[in-house]
Design goal:
226 residues, mainly alpha, Rhopdopsin 7-helix transmembrane proteins, 7 helices, 77% helix, disordered C terminus
Length: 226
């Protein structure tokens, strides 16, 4: 089983390096929260693989680091999605309050989920919490998708990025939901791990494709505003 994690981690590291290179090369620094999210993915993947090397598998410290990085990355996804929504709505003063409500609501939901699911062990606590956080992030991503589709000057790159995030978040929510059922049958945990891994790698590839080419020039819109 450890070999599968090494394989997934190695593929993920390669894709993350490709994404970072593509974002920096093609002028995507303005999506700095998304860039920070990919950097956090790269660092957490590298640290986890190093912590597992020379051991028989997942140590207690590796589990602790995995769940801490999972929560941090969920928060970064929330911030990145809300930031892009804000950039697209900032041109309309009547819509600006929506961003503030999204920020307050996302923060409140994150804290509520972590509090409600607090359990006797870190794994029992964070597995359902991660599932619910991914589900909420998926809803936020659907809001972003709707905003992008309603924009007459659609940003194709962000549409693809939103699609990639949607694949990852939905796959994570489904995978964590199946892992919760491991006491019924270990097959659920295995299936959940498989779905989570495949959708995660697929989402990285989709995001890489979104930034692999320079963005086509577009008329001035909300994204070009400070």
């Amino acid at each position: 089983m450890t070999g599968i994690y090494y394989l997934q981690g190695s593929i993920a590291l390669i894709l993350q390096v490709f994404i970072l290179n593509a974002m920096l090369r093609n002028g995507a620094r303005r999506y700095w929260l998304l860039l920070l999210y990919v950097v956090s993915l790269f660092l957490s993947t590298a640290v986890l693989m190093l912590s597992m090397s020379g051991s028989s598998g997942w140590s207690r410290d590796a589990f602790r680091f995995f769940w801490i990085s999972e929560v941090v990355q969920q928060a970064l996804v929330y911030c990145a999605i809300i930031s892009i929504i804000h950039q697209h709505l900032s041109s309309g003063n009547t819509r600006s309050p929506m961003t503030r409500w999204l920020i307050v609501g996302a923060a409140a939901i994150l804290l509520t989920i972590l509090t409600v699911h607090k359990g006797p062990s870190l794994n029992a606590w964070m597995t359902p919490a991660s599932r619910d956080l991914s589900f909420v992030a998926t809803i936020l991503n659907l809001v972003l998708w709707t905003v992008l589709l309603r924009d007459p000057r659609r940003n194709q790159r962000l549409l693809v990025v939103s699609g990639g995030l949607g694949v990852q978040l939905a796959g994570s929510a489904i995978g964590q939901g199946l892992r919760v059922l491991w006491e019924v049958s270990k097959a659920f945990a295995t299936l959940g791990n498989f779905i989570g891994s495949i959708t995660y790698l697929l989402s990285l590839y989709i995001i890489f494709r979104a930034f692999s080419r320079p963005e086509a020039p577009q008329p001035e819109n909300a994204l070009s505003q400070p």
